[in-house]
Amino acid sequence: MLYCFFGPDTVDKDIKINLAGTNIQRVTSCKYLGILIDKELKWVEHIEYIHNKVISYIGIFYKLQNILPATDLHSIYFAFVHPHLLYGIEIYGNAGTSQLDKILKLNNKLMRILQKETCILK
């Protein structure tokens, strides 16, 4: 079993906590139910994790945009990308706007691919 100890930096770092014969390890963040919780509840690590997940899908969508019809691309987006963006969205209220802006820009990029917007010069 994994036990996590969260606390302020002012707490003595030499404190050892033992529960049922198991030492509790002090960490700066841990993953719980798919959400990375950091000790300050700023959600930077979780948003970075989501950011990296969504980046991996952008290349896939670029390659598929000229192969699959738009309806199939939409289905793939809502099956694989959208759940990552929505899961745990309630926690984003405490996140910094600069962190959220990274995810918003990636999602906008994916939306442009899904809409198959092309620049036509006249």
Question: What does the model show?
Answer:
It is elongated and about 60 Å long. A hairpin with a 2-residue loop joins strand 4 (29-32) and strand 5 (35-38). It has one domain (4-115). The strands form 2 sheets. Strands 1-3-2 form a 3-stranded mixed β-sheet, with no helix packed on it. A two-stranded antiparallel sheet has the order 4-5. The chain has 3 helices and 5 strands. It is α+β, with helices and mostly antiparallel strands and 122 residues long. The relative contact order is 0.13. Helix 1 runs antiparallel to helix 2 (70-86) and helix 2 packs antiparallel against helix 3.
Record keyword descriptors for this entry.
two-stranded antiparallel ribbon; 5 strands; 3-stranded mixed sheet; 122 residues; single chain; disordered C terminus; 47% helix; alpha+beta
List the helices and strands and how they pair.
Layout: E1 4-5, E2 17-19, E3 22-26, E4 29-32, E5 35-38, H1 44-64, H2 70-86, H3 97-115
Parallel strand pairs: 1-3
Antiparallel strand pairs: 2-3, 4-5
Largest sheet, strands/sense/barrel: 3 strands, mixed
**Gross morphology:** elongated
* Structure classification: alpha+beta
SSE ordering: EEEEEHHH
Sheet with the most strands: spatial strand order: 1-3-2
Number of helices: 3
Q: Per DSSP, what share of the residues sits in E-state strands of 2 or more residues?
A: 5-15%
Concise overview:
With 122 residues, the protein is α+β, with helices and mostly antiparallel strands. The chain contains three helices and five strands; from the N terminus they run βββββααα. It has one domain (4-115).
